[in-house]
Write a structure and sequence with these properties.
single chain; 242 residues; alpha+beta; 9 helices; 6 strands
């Protein structure tokens, strides 16, 4: 079995204790962790680091299992971000099964969930990114990696739009969003990105409102509601009066 592994910058959606997920699940950080050079080893994260956490956000991509899990030192990384000591840190890892895809020859953008960043940013209330995507086997050995800039977001203190700790809706959002065709995801990507930016406290009121209006406009255009002639809904007599 081959998995894709996506380290996530500034992902803090809140976490639930999912007691139904076994500790030995093949997607757990403790089984897949191989510390790349871009992670801060000074924080004590090493291959096979044991963790008693049951925090786990499951979702599905192309019918295959996937999940997001915080790093073992998540609490410390979160503290450093929230106190302003850091503006960008890898806080979690998204992992999923490659399934029937030929990850070596298929263009990455044709099957890999690049759209996931807009959905996670919307759920978190702040931009989320990643420096790389890796492909590993079930023992955590890295087969190959793509060093691609999926965004280098700056952290701002925000309240998550969808708090996984409260209701676990992040996994459902990702599953449903990633199951849409590319056209359906395209306008939602734009709408969620604008909505997320409209909630950033780093922007002034005018810019925040502009972002929200643009997000609403994306949805209206996709649903055929960008322009309406209300007179068309009147009968002939009233249309003449109008």
């Amino acid at each position: 079995m081959t998995y894709w592994v996506l380290p996530l910058f500034n992902s803090m959606p809140g976490w639930r204790n999912v007691s139904t997920e076994p500790r030995g699940h093949a997607l757990r950080v403790a089984r897949l962790a191989e510390v790349p050079t871009y992670l801060d080893s000074a924080n004590g994260w090493s291959p096979g680091t044991p963790t008693d956490r049951l925090h786990f956000i499951p979702f599905r991509l192309d019918g295959c299992a996937a999940a997001i899990e915080p790093l073992p030192d998540y609490d410390e990384r979160r503290r450093r971000l929230r106190e302003g000591g850091e503006r960008r840190l890898i806080t979690a890892v998204a992992v999923g099964e490659v399934g029937e895809h030929d990850a070596r020859s298929e263009p990455l953008w044709e099957w890999f969930p690049i759209d996931i960043f807009e959905a996670l940013g919307f759920a978190n209330g702040i931009p989320v990114g990643s420096p790389v995507v890796e492909f590993v086997d079930a023992d955590g050995a890295v087969s190959w990696r793509h060093v691609i800039n999926f965004g280098h977001p700056v952290f701002y203190r925000q309240r998550p739009v969808i708090d996984a700790e409260a209701h676990g809706g992040v996994g459902e959002l990702l599953t449903r969003f990633l199951s849409l065709d590319k056209g359906g995801r395209l306008y939602l990507r734009a709408a969620m990105s604008h909505a997320m930016r409209g909630g950033l406290r780093s922007q002034d009121t005018e810019d925040r409102l502009a972002s929200l209006f643009r997000g609403l406009e994306c949805v209206c255009k996709a649903q055929g509601l960008a322009a309406q002639n209300l007179a068309d809904q009147l009968d002939g007599e009233n249309r003449e009066l109008a």
